[in-house]
Specification:
Layout: H1 4-7, H2 48-52, H3 68-80, H4 102-108, H5 111-114, H6 126-143, E1 147-149, H7 155-172, E2 179-183, H8 189-196, E3 200-204, H9 214-220, E4 225-231, H10 243-252, E5 256-261, E6 280-283, H11 285-288, E7 303-305, E8 317-321, H12 326-331, E9 341-345, H13 362-398, E10 414-417, H14 419-422, H15 428-437, E11 444-445, E12 454-457, H16 465-484, H17 486-490, H18 503-508
Parallel strand pairs: 2-3, 2-4, 4-5, 5-6
Antiparallel strand pairs: 1-7, 6-7, 8-9, 10-12, 11-12
Helix pairs in contact: 4-13, 6-13, 7-8, 13-16
Bound molecules: pyridoxal-5'-phosphate (PLP).
Length: about 525
């Protein structure tokens, strides 16, 4: 039996979860309770039934009935059960859960930007179009590419758009080709994307350093290869040193190099994919440029490409037109009539078409641009260096207690394995659950797949030395517990409202809707 004292054994960072229980809002309901009181009607009553016809609901909708304070307390209590980057380190590898500076939020809520309606005519939308144009130019500068679309709504959506460009380009040369090569260290979205774009996926085995085996690649690339989808740095946190050679091997056979740029937070300000042979790539604005990631918030996956792919970009494309601003001056009297103006261009016969309604998740663009401008080139470079430094600090401080399967230098994240702990029957998932008792969000468990029992840790640049040390202390303490009291780790977490949940059942039979009869 775990003693209470052991359960609460923590490092300096103690953040036990709220233990208050909370019934569903429906279960708390009692008939007749209201959170409001309306004054008597002082306008003529309307016959709702006549107005709505068949759409008029005859019976009440069965919504919960509560007082205002009950509602406030219910949702406030629920909110305290969440872990958030604003509470502490969120070392979820591959997800780059960095802090989202408040200035981004402030700027994205500025009325003129937040309320710019997507149907507003171009002539009246010059301000927001300038914002989008500036972001595009910043991203092109950062990536070293020639053209860009901001439309895709997430990283995986960016991959899809990027591969559509690849396909359209091959098609325009007479043959869309059949297969896409993907390393075994890739993010799961890569093979899914290739398959959805109609390609066969061919796996590339990583070499002992976690990189691409050039000889194997040369053997696998042929005239039916459309592209290689490469994450750089990879999900092992390893930079592909020979990427320019990889690009040469592909190009020699007419294949393209697609870079999954979701890990650009390790490269920004240091190297540019456009300079090392990448033809097309996506960015995860919601990782690299701090905009909220996780928790289901909106994302953004712009796709940048080399000039030869530009004709295939999704419509509409933002273009700057010189000279005639007569439409702008007509719409905004007093606006200068001779400068250039921005407009959406739809007439692009080779375009792959639209991939999203309107122009993308504009709020994300504003946040990302605010982050880029607030940091400036030197600040962004510093951010990259800090992210890599933090990951390597953790690596150095933990490599004597956790197995490091790949000794190649780490970039923004470090991947350990549970090999030593597994000998005592404790798995990566157990260690992650125990981390919750120490007040940290778990790291990424069992990914990437090429590392058996992976512990994937990405601290990001947001963390101070003090927070990193607390994390290290927690991880070292758990390693000691594995030696001394393995059961404690295997049954964690002990400080939460509920302990181990049936994750398989939750994934296979999610209960997402309340039905009175399903409750005991
Ligand atoms: C390497 C990599 N590729 C692709 C993606 C997919 O991005 P999204 O979750 O925005 O679709 C992620 C997500 O974290 C990632 O880490």
């Amino acid at each position: 039996m775990m003693a209470g004292a052991i359960e609460r054994k923590t490092t300096g960072k103690v953040r036990p979860h709220q233990t208050q229980n909370e019934r569903l809002v429906f279960e708390k309901s009692s008939p007749g309770k209201r959170a409001y009181k309306l004054p008597p009607l002082d306008v003529p009553a309307v016959d709702v039934s006549a107005l709505l016809g068949n759409a008029h609901r005859r019976e009440a909708a069965g919504l919960p009935e509560l007082s205002e304070i009950e509602i406030i307390r219910h949702f406030t209590r629920l909110s305290t059960w969440n872990y958030a980057i604003d509470l502490g380190m969120y070392p979820l590898g591959s997800c780059t859960m960095k802090y989202n500076p408040r200035v981004n939020e402030f700027v994205s809520r500025i009325e003129g930007l937040a309320e710019a309606h997507p149907y507003r005519p171009d002539a009246l939308a010059q301000g927001i179009l300038e914002v989008l144009d500036l972001l595009q130019r910043c991203l092109l500068e950062i990536t070293g590419m020639d053209a860009i679309t901001l439309q895709p709504a997430a990283g995986a959506h960016g991959e899809f758009t990027g591969l559509l460009l690849v396909r359209a380009w091959h098609q325009s040369n007479g043959n869309p080709r059949k297969k896409v090569l993907i390393p075994d260290s890739a993010h799961g979205t890569n093979p899914a994307t290739a398959a959805i774009c109609g390609y066969q996926v061919e796996n590339l085995k990583s070499n002992a350093d976690g990189g691409i085996d050039l000889e194997a690649l040369a053997r696998q690339v042929d005239e039916e290869t459309a592209a290689l989808m490469l994450t750089n740095p990879s999900t092992l946190g390893v930079f592909e040193n020979e990427i320019h050679k990889i690009a040469d091997i592909l190009h020699a056979k007419g294949a393209l190099l697609y870079m999954d740029g979701a890990n650009m937070n390790a490269l920004v300000g240091k190297v540019r994919p456009g300079d090392f042979g990448v033809d097309v790539m996506h960015l995860n604005l919601h990782k690299t440029f701090s905009t909220p990631h996780g928790g289901g918030g909106p994302g953004s996956g712009p796709v940048a490409c080399k000039g030869f792919l530009e004709p295939f970009l999704p419509i509409p494309v933002l273009v700057r037109r010189e000279g005639d601003r007569s439409q702008v001056s007509k719409a905004r009297p007093g606006a200068p009539s001779s400068e250039s103006h921005l407009a959406w261009e739809y007439d692009r016969p080779q375009s792959v078409g639209r991939v999203r309604a309107f122009y993308g998740n504009t709020g994300m663009f504003i946040r990302a641009l605010a982050y880029i401008l607030a940091n400036g080139p030197d600040g962004l470079r510093q951010t990259t260096e800090d992210a890599v430094l933090n990951a390597n600090y953790i690596r150095k401080k933990l490599e004597d207690v956790y197995e490091l399967p790949y000794k190649t230098p780490s970039m923004h994240e470090v991947v350990f394995s549970d090999k030593r702990q597994a000998a005592k029957g404790v798995k990566t998932g157990d260690i992650a659950k125990r981390l919750i008792d120490y007040g940290f969000h778990p790291y990424t468990v069992s990914f990437p797949l090429i590392v058996h029992g992976a512990l994937m840790i990405e601290p990001t640049e947001s963390e101070s030395l003090e927070e990193l040390d607390l994390f290290v202390e927690a991880m070292r303490s758990i390693a000691r517990e594995v030696d001394e009291t393995p059961e404690l780790v295997k049954t964690a977490p002990h400080s939460t409202r509920v302990s181990r949940l049936d994750e398989v059942q939750a994934a296979r039979k999610p209960m997402l809707r309340w039905r009175a009869q399903e409750r005991p």
